[in-house]
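Quick review question:
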């Protein structure tokens, strides 16, 4: 299925001013995203095969804490831990659901079966 499975909700915090932070761990091996090296590049060998480690789990963080809606996606392990906070997707004015659906649409355009 192209819309990834939410493994768990790792954080949900609401603040007195009405803002919030929600974070989810999702399993999405079909996204074919790889850990970059220290220069931010995905490693490829002489035959053109990717040698970097594949990312199967991600944190999706939806927040209104900065005064606007923003959802960012970070690579993680299956427990929701990340070793860097460099986002790989997302943006302002998107909910977590909209980010997940946009990934599904991209995968469909790439020729993957959505179901």
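Suggested answer, residue by residue:
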């Amino acid at each position: 299925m192209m819309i990834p499975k939410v493994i768990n909700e790792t954080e949900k915090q609401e603040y007195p001013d009405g803002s919030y932070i929600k974070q989810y761990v999702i399993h999405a091996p079909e996204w074919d995203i790889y850990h970059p090296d220290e220069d931010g590049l995905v490693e490829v060998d002489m035959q053109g095969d990717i040698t970097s480690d594949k990312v199967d789990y991600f944190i999706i963080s939806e927040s209104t804490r900065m005064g606007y809606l923003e959802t960012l996606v970070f690579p993680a392990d299956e427990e929701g831990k990340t070793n860097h906070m460099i986002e790989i997707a997302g943006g302002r004015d998107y909910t977590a659901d909209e980010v997940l659906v946009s990934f599904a649409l991209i995968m469909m355009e790439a020729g993957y079966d959505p179901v």
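Why it works: Residues 96-109 form the longest helix (14 residues). The chain has one domain: 5-109.
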